[in-house]
């Protein structure tokens, strides 16, 4: 038993009353930072005090918080016991995963932000250095159509995973409300009524605004939340006017005053949670001044507003207000920069010959990069456009002299990218079973949101894709530490895509790409091996469902290997996939 206790994952101390130092400590306990009495502190409270309370009451006593100064989060339990006939105690320090709250919070924040031609958005969430006070801050941005954006930032009551859960429910309620009414008065009233019915949401602060990207008009309201900062093109700063109102649910029916402001081109709106102002001994006015100074310095840095780097604005501002000893509270920042100029559309007129394709790819890549697209989305669009151009080169003018081919790319006010590839030739329907060729349309449909084909004195292929961008500062944090491994094994009769580890939303996208690669865009059979998967997310289920439907349409059946009795097999079965795939 002593050997088992020595190697236990939790820190264990054995103490005897009236003896200053612990009688015994296991290997994990000997690694902890301890005080004069040989015991650690939890959130500033000596564990020795916890032991004294347990000895007096005769009952186990527990405390929850950070070990030492901002150390890992832990639960400390002191249990009275008899040691060699004397009163004593067993102290167990159960260290919690330091990023559990952070993972929960990040998984509930928007995975991406809309990309509009007139507005650059940047979002960032940073966890409090003391994990016992972390959780609950959030931001969101929703495209409402016609160039309008809903911008919101809030701070849920409480800390830890429960606060993250409350934040998630409130964010869900907000998005549901937007389907019926997106105006500030209606949204705040709906959230107020929702919070009044939910004890853990009551008292949440929120700022909500609707920005017209083209005109710069901003209509907004707030409940118990600080006013956002505006940084004008000349570097001057001010805070929006906000009428004080109680937090959500604390005074149901309280009026939410709606204000309006105009953001000129080149202006930047900075929404932030209360954590950006938190700081021992700093007056609120001084904290606001400091935030304004930090934001101004970040925006004036060389290249800060370039499309490639502007995604990091929110993180830079949050890091700028960090105190030397860390963030005293969670910090959520959402930045909306109104661009002075929008990128022009792209038009390329070429002769439909193979030698034209490299030039089309180079110019399209440069133009998409100028939009600020991430590499994964950019490559997907380029491959889809390349397939459309290759079809025109190979088929449009077969049996005749090559003719014209045009490629036009543009983005509408809501951030929907449209690329049209037009030729004046004759469309030739693909053979029913052309092998690995003739599957261009199928590949295109897997890489972009929409594909249409029109024949009218030639052929026009139109590709559409809604632009979005994942905050770069969160990319690594959103992944689980033990990242999934997704590979294509071509050693057998047919390709096998093997996945191992946790297949979360990020890994699900890798899974989709590998399955398309292995099946030549769905044209030929392949298998999926999930035997080594430890987590299979809903995003992964959607990927497998999409490939199963493609396989069905292409007259082959997807084989999925998932052990019976395993969680992955159970997820697949309850999702109804066992009727679309061969589960083995």
From TrEMBL:
Q: Which molecular function GO terms apply here?
A: kinase activity; phosphatase activity
Q: Which UniProt keywords apply?
A: Hydrolase, Kinase, Transferase
User: Residues in domain STAS?
Assistant: 496-584
Q: Which InterPro entries match?
A: Bact_Sigma-Reg, HATPase_C_sf, HATPase_dom, MlaB-like_STAS, PPM-type-like_dom_sf, PPM-type_phosphatase-like_dom, STAS_dom, STAS_dom_sf
Instruction: Read off the Pfam families from this record.
Output: HATPase_c_2, SpoIIE, STAS_2
Gene3D superfamilies for this protein: Histidine kinase-like ATPase, C-terminal domain, PPM-type phosphatase domain, STAS domain
Please identify the protein, giving its name as recorded: Fused histidine kinase/SpoIIE-like protein
């Amino acid at each position: 038993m002593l050997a088992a206790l020595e190697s236990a994952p939790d820190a264990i101390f054995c103490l005897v009353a009236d003896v200053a130092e612990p009688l015994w400590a296991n290997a994990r306990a000997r690694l902890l930072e301890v005080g004069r009495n040989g015991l650690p502190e939890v959130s500033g409270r000596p564990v020795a005090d916890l032991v004294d309370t347990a000895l007096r009451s005769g009952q186990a006593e527990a405390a929850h918080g950070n070990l030492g100064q901002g150390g890992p989060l832990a639960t400390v339990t002191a249990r009275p016991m008899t040691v060699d006939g004397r009163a004593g105690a067993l102290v167990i320090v159960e260290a919690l995963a330091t990023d559990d709250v952070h993972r929960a919070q990040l998984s509930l924040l928007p995975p991406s932000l809309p990309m509009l031609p007139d507005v650059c958005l940047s979002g960032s969430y940073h966890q409090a250095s003391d994990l016992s006070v972390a959780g609950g801050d959030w931001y969101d941005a929703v495209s409402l159509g016609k160039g309008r954006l809903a911008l919101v930032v809030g701070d849920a009551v409480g800390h830890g995973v429960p606060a993250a859960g409350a934040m998630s429910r409130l964010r869900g309620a907000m998005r549901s409300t937007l389907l019926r009414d997106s105006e500030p008065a209606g949204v705040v009233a709906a959230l107020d009524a929702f919070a009044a019915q939910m004890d853990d949401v009551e008292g949440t602060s929120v700022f909500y605004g609707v920005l017209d990207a083209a005109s710069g008009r901003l209509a907004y309201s707030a409940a118990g939340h600080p006013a956002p900062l505006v940084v004008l093109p000349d570097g001057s700063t001010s805070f929006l006017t906000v009428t004080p109102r109680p937090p959500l649910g604390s005074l149901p029916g309280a009026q939410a005053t709606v204000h309006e402001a105009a953001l000129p081109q080149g202006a930047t709106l900075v929404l932030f949670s209360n954590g950006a102002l938190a700081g021992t001994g700093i007056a609120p006015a001084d904290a606001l001044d400091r935030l304004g100074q930090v934001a101004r310095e970040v925006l004036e840095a060389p290249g800060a507003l370039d499309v490639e780097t502007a995604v990091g604005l929110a993180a830079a501002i949050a890091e700028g207000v960090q105190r030397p000893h860390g963030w005293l509270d969670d910090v959520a920042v959402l930045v909306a920069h109104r661009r002075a100029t929008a990128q022009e559309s792209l038009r390329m007129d070429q002769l439909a010959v193979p030698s034209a394709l490299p030039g089309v790819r180079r110019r399209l890549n440069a133009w998409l990069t100028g939009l600020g697209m991430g590499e994964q989305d950019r490559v997907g669009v380029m491959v889809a456009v390349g397939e459309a151009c290759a079809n025109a080169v190979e088929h449009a003018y077969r049996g005749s002299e090559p003719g014209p081919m045009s490629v036009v790319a543009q983005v509408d006010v809501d951030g929907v990218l449209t690329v049209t590839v037009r030729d004046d030739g004759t469309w030739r329907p693909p053979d029913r079973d052309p092998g690995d060729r003739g599957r261009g349309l199928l590949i295109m449909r897997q890489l972009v949101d929409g594909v249409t084909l029109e024949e009218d004195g030639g052929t026009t292929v139109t590709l559409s894709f809604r632009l979005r961008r994942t905050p770069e500062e969160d990319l690594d944090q959103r992944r689980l530490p033990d990242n999934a491994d997704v590979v294509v094994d071509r050693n057998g009769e047919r390709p096998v895509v093997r996945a191992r580890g946790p297949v979360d939303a990020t890994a699900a996208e890798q899974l989709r790409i590998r399955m398309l690669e292995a099946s030549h865009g769905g044209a030929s059979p392949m298998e999926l091996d999930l035997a080594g998967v430890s987590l299979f997310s809903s995003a992964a289920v959607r990927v497998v469902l999409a490939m199963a439907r493609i396989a069905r349409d292409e007259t082959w059946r997807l084989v999925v290997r998932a052990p019976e009795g395993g969680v992955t097999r159970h997820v697949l079965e309850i999702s109804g996939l066992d009727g679309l795939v061969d589960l083995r």
